[in-house]
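Tutorial, part two.
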Amino acid sequence: MWSRYLITGAGLVFLLALLLAPGCTQPEKPLSGGILVTFDVSGETYKIFITNETAIEQVLAVQRGESQATIPNGRILRGAVSYNAPWSWHIDPEDIEMAEMTIELYDGRPSLVEADIDYWVDTVKRFAPWNARITAVEDYR
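Running the prediction step on this input gives:
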């Protein structure tokens, strides 16, 4: 009877290989130690989890109407994260700042990044949409 529930050594190795295979996603840790900011860019939404204290203060200053630095300027990383669905990329939580202006090369929409992720990550390296507007801030500190 117990033989149905036993996993052989080979079966265990196979199961572990499946779990650790490239492309398999590991469960994400709950967000903590930062803020989750939702941006609208010309009708498209994306989110950045920010742990950089300077950038957090910059976002809050924009929200209070005390700053004109409304452009999120962050390093693009490959990899989907649950809070930034449906995009297969995200912004580095530490390498982010709010800017008043950036070079035009960084400007775009989330769908443009998605359509050519290799170009954006390997060549442009940053995403700073000029038309971004903060629509929500959730505090996880």
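Residues 10-24 have pLDDT under 50 and may be disordered. In part three we will examine how such features are distributed along the chain.
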